[in-house]
Specification:
This protein has 362 residues and is an alpha+beta fold. It has a single domain (4-358), classed as Chorismate synthase AroC (Chorismate synthase, AroC fold), CATH 3.60.150.10. Helices cover 27% and strands 22% of the residues. The protein is built from eight helices and 18 strands. Helix 3 (130-146) packs across helix 8. The model has no long low-confidence stretch (mean pLDDT 93).
């Protein structure tokens, strides 16, 4: 049913936006791995609503509960179940949507496919489902930390506003220094004002999240259908509102010649084989080459806006809908920990797959 992700490090998310709770079950986590509930909570706090006036004003503490699979702060090797209870759902805001489809939302397709849907909050189509991903990603980070891998994401652009960010040096402190989560401080201020003006107009705006994984060893990923960039693409495009994915030069590489685009190998002072450029984005032939993995994810404007729009009823009759409720005018600031989580889940899964096939990563 599409609720499961991963091959060895496998997660299954559960729950609806306005149900009693949401969460995740993790299978395949190695035993004796440190599981720090405070580290999980920190990531959930970065994702939770109500962080500033440019995010949804739903008030949720998003406090994680560990139900199984952890003893004395260590994983036991059995299923890890994590849950967050919903406490500030307002189902009445969705009463009109019981009879009307929200434009560009999952209402119509869910109804047609299943003959039933969770009207309140969009059910499984809600970004609230990603709580389980973020919680699981915080545990996956422990696998990456042991391998010396760091994952970081940031807001790269909002609408036509583009930040200047060096993926090789950007830090978490720089990302978290402002509510937009853009490490370009001057541009972040402009982005904030832009998002706020759009919010006041009852509209929404999209943009691009940039992300990098540093310290990735050679060898993660496999031909043909388990190429690392293919798995990363599937992970990122599974996110709510995600509409595009690039790795390395991405679409800009189509404007270059091969003589300029090819990454040139050389041997550094330590005897390690490196590349002078990184158009490949740290992946060649579907396998990590030891350089930084550099990717970008495009997010559309939030589908639910507070302006009247043309739509139809569930019976196909023409009507209009001005949505109520609390919604992000721009999903990007809260998407940062979600992108990081999916990045971590893919890399952790591939580390375990690599160990199973050829041994420890080097």
């Amino acid at each position: 049913m599409g609720n499961r992700f991963g091959r060895l490090f496998q997660i299954t998310t559960f729950g609806e936006s306005h149900g009693p709770a949401v969460g995740v079950v993790i299978d395949g986590c190695p035993p004796r791995l440190p599981v720090d509930v405070q580290a999980i909570q920190r990531e959930l706090d970065r994702r939770k609503p109500g962080q500033s006036r440019i995010t949804t004003q739903r008030k949720e503490g998003d406090e994680v509960e560990i139900l199984s699979g952890v003893d004395g702060g260590l994983s036991t090797g059995t299923s890890i179940a994590l849950m967050v209870r919903n406490k500030d759902a307002r189902s009445k805001d969705y009463s009109e949507m019981r009879e009307k489809f929200r434009p560009s939302h999952a209402d119509f397709t869910y109804q047609k496919k299943y003959g039933i849907r969770s009207v309140e909050g969009g059910g499984r189509a809600s970004a609230r489902e990603t709580i389980g991903r973020v919680a699981a990603g915080a545990i996956a980070q422990q696998i990456l930390a042991a391998a010396g891998i760091e994952v970081l994401a940031w807001v790269a652009s909002v609408g036509d506003l583009v930040a200047s960010v060096d993926a090789t040096t950007v830090t978490l402190d720089q990302v978290e220094a402002n509510p937009v989560r853009c490490p370009d401080a001057a541009m972040a201020a402009t982005m904030f004002d832009h998002i706020d003006a759009i919010r006041k107009a009852g509209d929404s705006v999209g943009g691009v999240v940039g992300a990098v994984a540093r310290g990735v060893p050679v060898g993660l990923g496999s031909p043909v259908f388990d190429k690392l960039e293919a798995c990363l693409g599937a992970a990122m495009l599974s996110l709510p509102a995600a509409k595009g994915f690039e790795v390395g030069s991405g679409f800009s590489g189509t404007k270059m010649l091969g003589s300029a685009h090819n990454d040139v190998f050389y041997t550094d002072d330590t005897g390690r084989i490196r590349t002078r450029t990184n158009f490949s984005g740290g992946i060649q032939g579907g396998i990590s080459n030891g350089e930084n993995i550099d990717l970008r994810v495009a997010f559309k404007p939030t589908a639910t806006i507070l302006q009247a729009q043309e739509t139809v009823t569930i019976d196909g009759e023409a009507t209009t809908l001005a949505a109520r409720g609390r919604h992000d005018p721009c999903v990007l600031p809260r998407a940062i920990p979600i992108v990081e989580a999916m990045f971590r889940l893919v890399l952790a899964d591939h580390i375990l797959l690599h160990r199973a096939q050829v041994g420890e990563v080097r």
